[in-house]
Specification:
Elements (H helix, E strand, L loop, with lengths): L1 H17 L1 H47 L3 H18 L3 E2 L2 H19 L4 E4 L3 E2 L6 E11 L2 H12 L5 E11 L2 E14 L12
Parallel strand pairs: 1-6
Antiparallel strand pairs: 2-4, 3-4, 4-6, 5-6
Length: 201
């Protein structure tokens, strides 16, 4: 067995020595393998370098953001705004009382600044994400002067309660504004109003 293996090794060695094309072929294969290995290592090094740069840049950005004080200032401002909005939401024992208060407020506003306008209460809708919080819309429509319109808008938007203009349409009839406007008041009703005051009329 050993003699057979020794004969094969001797045969391969003799073939290697006597055949220059075999030597050139093996050298070419080795050169190609070496070049391929170099290319693979270069790509791997390039990828590692790109990852290093990306992570370093991300680290610098995070460090810069962490050192900025305006984030705490913005968070405090957002918290203050949230508190002011919550404070502007009145409370009512029932949705009927909330509707009555909104309609009374709108009627007083129209009597003072829009006597030719009419109001129409819309069905209240509970805010899905906040149980007990209701939207109470009222639509007003009619003709009025520009000064009257601006005063009505100012009174609604400057209300100490959370009162917003949800829809607004404006057309001109005989040179005067003809307005259709839906104002929405927000109320906490029922269990959400426990511990707070009742809506007044």
């Amino acid at each position: 067995m050993k003699a057979l293996e020794s004969g094969r090794v001797r045969q391969i060695r003799d073939e290697w020595r006597s055949n220059p094309r075999l030597r050139w072929g093996v050298a070419a294969i080795a050169a190609i393998a070496f070049v391929y290995l170099v290319l693979v290592l270069a790509d791997w090094r390039r990828d590692l370098h790109a990852q290093y740069q990306q992570r370093t840049l991300q680290m610098y950005k995070m460090a810069a953001l962490a050192g900025q004080e305006q984030w705490s200032v913005r968070a405090q401002a957002a918290q203050n705004l949230q508190k002011s909005l919550q404070a502007g939401i009145p409370r009512a024992a029932t949705i009927g009382l909330a509707q009555a208060e909104v309609q009374t407020t709108i009627r007083q506003l129209l009597n003072a600044f829009g006597p030719r306008m009419s109001s129409d209460a819309k069905p209240p809708v509970q805010v899905r994400s906040q149980p007990g919080l209701w939207r109470v819309p009222v639509t007003i429509r009619g003709m009025l002067s520009q000064a009257q319109l601006m005063e009505i808008l100012r009174r609604i938007e400057s209300s100490d309660r959370l009162f917003v203009i949800d829809e607004f349409q404006l057309a001109f009839v005989q040179g005067q504004p003809n307005v259709t406007l839906t104002a929405v008041a927000y109320y906490r009703v029922g269990a959400a109003a426990q511990g707070g005051r009742r809506a007044t009329r």
